[in-house]
Amino acid sequence: MNKLLIVGADLERTETWIKYEKNLCGSCVSSCCTLPVEVRFNDLLRIGVVDEFERSEPARNIAKRLIKDGVVERFNQKTGIYTLVRMSNNDCLYLDRKTRLCSIYERRPDTCRNHPKIGPRPGYCAFRPKRPA
């Protein structure tokens, strides 16, 4: 059987994703940073958009404030999961448009820290190569 070389993954079609290898990140356009980022309170605390004293606040109230502030897109009260806002081009709010690097890398959410071990297709990434300069 002939193997086809996939030049760039389609985010919507996980079957086009390739097996993750650590060296892929440096030559990718950060396509994983265009996927929805689900976070919990501890992630929001680490990012610095909530304070420890807010832990006793109803999550619904925190979500309302963060939606108004443009940090959170939605909140699932049943699971306690917040989804971070993405820019109009689907980039994560914290992805630097010029460098394509995370602007909060040391404080990034657990979802990002654990990618691609977790996600739509664990162990695979939506690799899309950078265009030659």
UniProtKB/TrEMBL annotation:
- Annotated InterPro entries: Puta_zinc/iron-chelating_dom (IPR005358)
The protein here is known as: YkgJ family cysteine cluster protein
In which organism is this protein found? Zestomonas carbonaria
